[in-house]
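Moderator note: this is an archived Q&A kept for reference. The question asked for a predicted structure of one protein chain; the sequence and the answer are reproduced below.
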Amino acid sequence: MSFIEQTQDLSNIYKQLESENSRDRLRALVSLRDVSPDEAVPLILKVINDENLQIRSMAVFALGLKHTEDCFPVLAKILETENDYGIRADAAGALGYLQDNRAVEPLLRAFYEDTEWLVRFSAAVSLGNLGDVRAYDALIQALDSEETVLHQAAIAALGEVGDLRCVDQILRFAQSDDWLTRQRLAEALGHLNCDKSLSALNYLVKDSHPQVASAARYAIERLGANE
């Protein structure tokens, strides 16, 4: 695409974002997928407070995929001040995609202080994506949650963080009634190279659920490859 064609294309997207028709604005956001971050982010920010929740959600997610200096403060503010918990959860998820460790603090605040489990779930997933050991205590606390999905997110995230102190804590889920929790455990143990992990994986490889057994086999191979 020539420079002139690209400029015209961006101009058309700009006009669509100004449209009163929400479908036009949605199409415009989708078309920004292949636009460079520096050009896309200012356009995304035009609809970051859109009255349409679907558009706002898509805009927040888009900021997580476009890495510029403008993205972090906007997403952190949304996570802290947005009234709609779904949008806060979107912001928490998007912060994990940025791979910017400044996000650890706002994500931890959201995890400890937000009353909605979906926001806390997204924060836990993103803390895992960032792999920062500062998240360790919060993720360990999530293991005591009443929400099974939080157990799953915390176990997966602890695997990403890679702190071997967590092995004893997460092994209590080896006999969880929830097969997806056991699968997340197997996957996490594949990142935590120690004798206890290998012993647990040899147990999980015999699991009655095929996806758990498969995850355990892959984790054992992963540990062997990293030795």
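Archived answer notes: The domain at 79-161 is CATH 1.25.10.10 (Leucine-rich Repeat Variant).
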